[in-house]
Amino acid sequence: MHASKPTLEPLPSRELAAFVAAVEAGAIGAAADSLSLTQSAVTKRVQSLERRVGLSLLARSHTGVQPTAAGSALYPDAKEALLAIARAANTLQSEKAAGEQRLRLAASHTIGAFLLPSWLAAFTATAPATEPQVSVTNTAGALSAVRAHEVDIGFLPDPAPDEELEMIHLGYDELVVVVAATHRWAHAPTVAPSELPSEPFVTREQGSGTRATAIGAARSLGVDLKPTHETNSTEALKRTVARGGFTIISALALGDDRSSGPLRALRLTGTALRRELRAVKHRAGTPNYTATHFWSWLTDAVADAG
Predict the structure, then answer these.
(1) Residue that is last in its domain, among 64, 81, 98
(2) Mean of the per-residue pLDDT values for the chain?
């Protein structure tokens, strides 16, 4: 069994910097000037390095200093080590600067597709260095990302009160019953809730806020909606309904085509399906400058308008 060789502790960068400066300047005084230190401080750092390695590194004379054999051997590695440390510091500084510009967002499908793009366009016009990273998911996914600190801000409908989350009211969203233009309900402005179970109900997947709002509202009216088809895409819902059945989605998803084109939007008789839209962030943690700026911008530019 071979005895392990003793290993020196990592050499301190401050001591290496004093040594390299002394070698390059040829004098302690000039080295001190280049490092913005006193001659005494440079001398102490070089002497500390010599004690640490157990070797004399500089030969001192009345004309200045010269590296010893050990010092000459050390100098190239010491110089490269200092350059590597400087590169590492620059890398970290660059990452920090980039991190300050990142804006990590998660949004439910409706907000992410129909509202957030225009909000981001308006915000980035005031902060052009912003680097948005947007995840469009369902309501449950957006809320989970906020709770797990995976994003800075989430956007979702009707979030439950939560002491861990700070919220901004952004406005309201109307849900409408959607059928094909050839459907028997299509020529009336409303449909009675009692009529809904007579047709196939096409809806979004579990975790969708739209689905939860629709089913909950129907249940409050004494109607138990049972999905016959599920999809995680609003566009897929619209294509499916064009062939039959109905869905309940945001009026935003229909845009200006609520009374034209292949689909028709109807309201439920006697009620309005309206849900609140909010921005949410975790109270814990330290959001970067851009996230903090965007939150303030939402408060001033969007919340007041909502």
Answers:
(1) 98
(2) 89
